[in-house]
Amino acid sequence: MAMNKQLNPASFMALLLDAVCAVDSDGRFVFVSAAGEQIFGYPPEEMVGRSMLAFIHPADRERTLAAAGKIMTGQPNPHFENRYIRKDGQVVHIMWSARWSESNQMRIAVARDVTERKRAESMQAALFAISEAAHAAENLSALYQHIHQIIGELLPAQNFAVALYDAASRQLSVPYQVDTRPADTPLTPPDLCELGTQVIGSGQPLLWQRSPPQPADDCEALGDPLLQSWLGVPLCTKQGVIGVLILKSYHVSMAYTRQHQELLQYVSTQVATAIERKQLHSRLQHMAQHDALTGLPNRALLNDKLQDALAKAIRHNSRVALLYLDLDNFKHINDSLGHSAGDLLLQAVAQRLSQCVRGADSVARIGGDEFIVLIEDLQRQEHASLVAEKIQQAFAMPIDIKTSTLHINVSVGVAHFPEHGSNGQQLLSHADDMMYQMKKQRRGLPAL
Ligand SMILES: Nc1nc2c(ncn2[C@@H]2O[C@H](COP(=O)(O)OP(=O)(O)OP(=O)(O)O)[C@@H](O)[C@H]2O)c(=O)[nH]1
C-alpha cells in the first residue's frame, strides 16, 4: 500500500507499449504519449498540434474521417484499423481503440502497432490468392498477370517479370514482363538474362544493387531510368528450378532489401507450383484439342472454332466457308513406302495447307488423310474457290519425303454458310459430299 502511494500514473504511461492519444474535434493531436515515438517514428512534440491526416496513409484518410465522425457521435470503436506513414517513410498498421470525451471535446484513443500481424496475414492471404489463381486463371498469361497483382500488394513490384527455364533446350524465356522503362531507352547492364541465368544456375536468390548508387538528379537529368536494384528469386519445384521471379527498380529511392527478398522467397514456391500446374493443364488441353502428328487443331477444336465462326457470322451478317480436303490414294503411299513415310507426308501436307491460308483462317486434321480449312469473314463467295484453287496449285508441286519425290492430288469440296447449312454438321456434310463428287470424277479420269 505504501508503495502504491509513491507511484506516479504519468510514469505508467511512459512505460506503455501502446500509445495514448487525444485528438480534438478538428482532428488535431492534442496529446501523444511517449510510446508514440516508437510507433509513429515522430517524437510526440512533433505530432502535437498537427492534423492526424498529415500522418495517415492517403488511401485510408477518407475511411478514418468517417470512423472519427461516428466516434464523435458517441459510438466508441474498439477495433478500428488504418495505416500511418512513419517518419522514416515506412507504413505502419495501427489498431485503434477510441471513444469521444464529451467533457474534453476530444477523441481519446489507444494505438497499437499491428504491422507484424498484418504482414503475416497478408503473406498468408497472398499464398491463398496464388493457389486460387492457379485454378481460376483461364490460361498461363492470365495467371502471370494475377501473380503480378498479388505480389504487388506485398512489395513494390512496378517492374516485374517471370522468366522460365527450359532444361531440355537450356533456354531462358520471358513469358511475362512489365517494365516501366521506355522501350526506346538503351538497356543498361546488367542484362536480365545474365542475372536470371545466375539465379537458375545457383538455385539461390540474387539481390543486385548499383554501386555506387547513381544520384537521382543525374538520372532524371539524363532522362535515363538506369537500373538501380534487381531482385531475382528462383522458382523451385520437385523437378528443380523452373524459372525466376524478377523485380527491378529504376529509382534510387527504392532499392530492394533482404526483407523484400524474404517476402518474395516466401511466395515463390507457391508461384512455382501454380505455374507448373497451369503448364500441365495447358499441355493437356493442347493435347485434347490438337492432332499429335501434325500439331493442327483436331476435330473437337474445329467444331468449337466452327461454332464460334458461325455465331460471329450471324451477329455480323457475314459469310463463312468450309473446305473439305482428302488426299488421293494416300493408302498406296503407306503401303508402298511405309507408315513412317505416310506420317512425314501428312506433316508436309499440314505445313503446305497452313501456308495457303490467312492467319484468321484455320486448318484442322479431322481424320487419317482428311483436312478442313475454315475460312472466316469471307468477303465474297468466290473467294473460297480461289483458296481451293490456291491449294490445288500448291499441291501441284511435288513433295520430297526421305528419298522419294511424291506427286499427290487433293480432292476438295466446298460448303458455304448460310447457303449450304445453318450449322456446322450440315456444312461439314455438304463439303464432304462435294469432295467425294470430285474424287469420283477424278477416278473416272486417266491416271496422271
Ligand atoms: N501414315 C499414316 N497413315 C494413316 C494415318 N491415319 C490414317 N492413315 C491411313 O490413311 C489411309 C486412308 O485411306 P483411304 O481413306 O482409303 O484413303 P486413300 O487411299 O487416299 O483413298 P481415296 O481417299 O479414296 O483416294 C489408310 O491407309 C490409313 O491407314 C496416320 O496418322 N499416318
From TrEMBL:
Signal peptide: none
Sequence ranges assigned to domain GGDEF in this UniProt record: 318-448
Residue ranges annotated for the PAC domain, each copy included: 78-126
Segments traversing the membrane: none
GO molecular function, one term: diguanylate cyclase activity
Pfam family, one: GGDEF
Enzyme class: transferase
Entry superkingdom: Bacteria
Domain annotation PAS: ranges: 18-75
CDD domains in the record: GGDEF, PAS
Keywords: Nucleotidyltransferase, Transferase
SUPFAM superfamilies on file: GAF domain-like, Nucleotide cyclase, PYP-like sensor domain (PAS domain)
E.C. number(s) listed in UniProt: 2.7.7.65
InterPro entries xrefs: DGC-Regulatory_Protein, GAF, GAF-like_dom_sf, GGDEF_dom, Nucleotide_cyclase, PAS, PAS-assoc_C, PAS-like_dom_sf
NCBIfam families documented for this protein: GGDEF, sensory_box
Protein name: Diguanylate cyclase domain-containing protein
